Amino acid sequence: MGNTLTGDNKKKWIPRTSGTRWTENLYREHSDALYAYGRKLGAQAPVIEDAIHDIFVSFWEQDKRKEINNPKAYLFGALRNRLMKSYRKSALTVYGKDFESHNFPLEIDYESVIISEEIKAETLQRLSSGIASLSDSQREILYLRFNEGLEYNEIAETLNMNYQSALNAVHRAIKSLRTHLGETVSVWIILQQGLQ
């Protein structure tokens, strides 16, 4: 089993058998998010830091052999449980309430959301106009590449052209869109979200 950690947590984690380096990578990748989650739960910084440390140490002490299919979810659950246990031991309250009924704070900056939506609408309008300026064959090639996820060799086969022609056609279509949209918009990001 490969022991490299991916951002998507696609690898299974078996404490002790996955190796120290892999566990260290797991710690580095998730410790900040775990800390932020602990703060959202209302715990104090030293308690959170101790809990995160204890989670990883306990794996080595207990020699667990069960597979953990989603390490991130497992770690978040372990942190929450460890903080609840710490709360019960200390009998302290969080925001005047017990830990289980803590009101999870989630702040939304509505002004930023509105501005973001306006920018998105303007960008989509410009994209729509840019797509309309493309030829039918350019629209088809972009659709095959970004909506259907075809690789260049598959596009070449589908449209009965050689590989280099497919590559050039996609490049020209993107260049045309970039010219129409300007440099402020990432054409790749928009195309990855799909063409209609």
From TrEMBL:
InterPro entries membership:
RNA_pol_sigma-70-like, RNA_pol_sigma-70_dom, RNA_pol_sigma70_r2, RNA_pol_sigma70_r4_t2, RNA_pol_sigma_r2, RNA_pol_sigma_r3/r4-like, WH-like_DNA-bd_sf
Q: Which domain of life is it from?
A: Bacteria
The residues forming the signal peptide are none
Q: Keyword check for Transcription, yes or no.
A: yes
Annotated keywords: DNA-directed RNA polymerase, Sigma factor, Transcription, Transcription regulation
According to the entry, every stretch annotated as the RNA polymerase sigma factor 70 region 4 type domain falls at: 126-177
What Pfam family does this protein match (any one)? Answer: Sigma70_r2
Cite the GO molecular-function annotations of the record: DNA binding; sigma factor activity
| Ranges of residues in domain RNA polymerase sigma-70 region | 26-90
Gene Ontology cellular-component annotations:
DNA-directed RNA polymerase complex
Q: Which GO terms describe its biological process?
A: DNA-templated transcription initiation
Q: Which family does it belong to?
A: Belongs to the sigma-70 factor family. ECF subfamily.
Would you tell me the protein name for this molecule? DNA-directed RNA polymerase sigma-70 factor
Q: Which species is listed as the source?
A: Fulvitalea axinellae
